[in-house]
Amino acid sequence: xxxxxxxxxxxxxxxxxxxxxxxxxxxxxxxxxxxxxxxxxxxxxxxxxxxxxxxxxxxxxxxxxxxxxxxxxxxxxxxxxxxxxxxxxxxxxxxxxxxxxxxxxxxxxxxxxxxxxxxxxxxxxxxxxxxxxxxxxxxxxxxxxxxxxxxxxxxxxxxxxxxxxxxxxxxxxxxxxxxxxxxxxxxxxxxxxxxxxxxxxxxxxxxxxxxxxxxxxxxxxxxxxxxxxxxxxxxxxxxxxxxxxxxxxxxxxxxxxxxxxxxxxxxxxxxxxxxxxxxxxxxxxxxxxxxxxxxxxxxxxxxxxxxxxxxxxxxxxxxxxxxxxxxxxxxxx
Length: 333
Ligand code: ATP
Ligand code: MG
Known about the structure:
It is a single chain. With 333 residues, the chain is of the alpha/beta class. The protein has a domain at 1-116: 3-Layer(aba) Sandwich (UDP-N-acetylmuramoyl-L-alanine:D-glutamate ligase), CATH 3.40.1190.20. It contains 11 helices and 13 strands. The chain has a 9-stranded mixed beta sheet with strand order 5-4-1-8-9-10-11-12-13, sandwiched between helices. It has a 4-stranded mixed beta sheet with strand order 3-2-6-7. Adenosine-5'-triphosphate binds next to helix 9 and helix 10.
C-alpha cells in the first residue's frame, strides 16, 4: 500500500540524565535507551495519528538498533527503508538537563550507522503513490552524503507527484546559517509546506521581517503554506490572502495566529517533530491549514509534557480529548 508520508534521517537512541543539573563530564545516573532521532519521532507521531508513514535511515546490528526497530514496528511505521548496517553501531544521543531549561548533548552519530546515510539507501518503491515527503534541515546538515540523499529524495518525490514539506530545523553546531541558506535553497523552493521557527524564517529569507519574507515567497508560489512555530507561544499560519489581493501589487499575506497551550514543560525534545507530524497528518487528511495547525499546536504542547523523546506523541483520540479539555492561552499576539 502506498504511503501518506515518507521521511528520512538520523536513527538514534537517547540516553538521558535522570536528574536536572547532572553535567555530562562527570559520573552520574543515566536512563535509557529510548528510541529517538528527530525524523523517527516525527514518524512515530504521524503513525499514532493514523497516517501511513515510512522512514528511511540506518541502525547497527545491535540491541540499540533493535530497540528503535521494535518501537517503529509497535507503532506501525513502515521500516522497509531502515537499513541494518553490520559494520556500524546504532547512533546514540546522551542528554543532560540544565537548571535554566537548556540541554547539553554528546552525540555518537557521524561515525555510527546514523551517519552513513547516502543516496543509495533510497528505494523507488517507497515513493510510488506517495502523498508527501517531509524533510528536516537538521538531517541535511549532518554531512555531504546526507544532503545528497535529501536532494535525490526530493527529486524522486517530485517525480512521483508528492507534496514537499520542509522544516529547516537549523542547527548552527552542525552547519553555519550562511551555509544552510545555500544548502537549503532547493528545499525551500520546492516546499509546498514550510514549518520554520520565526528565527529560521528570518535567517533563510531575504527580508527583515517575517511578513516580508513570506510575501516574497508567495510571489513565487501563491499556494505555499507557511506554518511558523513559536514555542510556548503557539504558532501562526501564513498563506496568501484571498480577501485583500490587489491586482498589480504583490500578494498580501494572511496571518492566522494560534495561541499556545498552558502546559508544564518536562522535556522539550520532540515538540517540533510532533508538531510537524500533527500538521501533516491532519492536512493530508483534508483539514484546512488553520485547522491542521490548531491540531499540531496541541501535539507540540503534549510532546513537552512527557519525559522521553516519543513519550509525548499521542494518538488522534488523545490529542482531540486534550483539545476539548484545554483552552489556549490568551493575548499572546
Ligand atoms: P525543535 O526543533 O527544537 O523541536 P522548534 O523550535 O522547531 O523545536 P517549538 O517552536 O519549540 O519547535 O515547538 C513546536 C510547537 O510545539 C510550538 O509551535 C507549539 O505549538 C508547541 N510547543 C512547544 N513548546 C511548548 C510549550 N512549552 N508549551 C506549549 N506548546 C509548546
Ligand atoms: Mg524545529
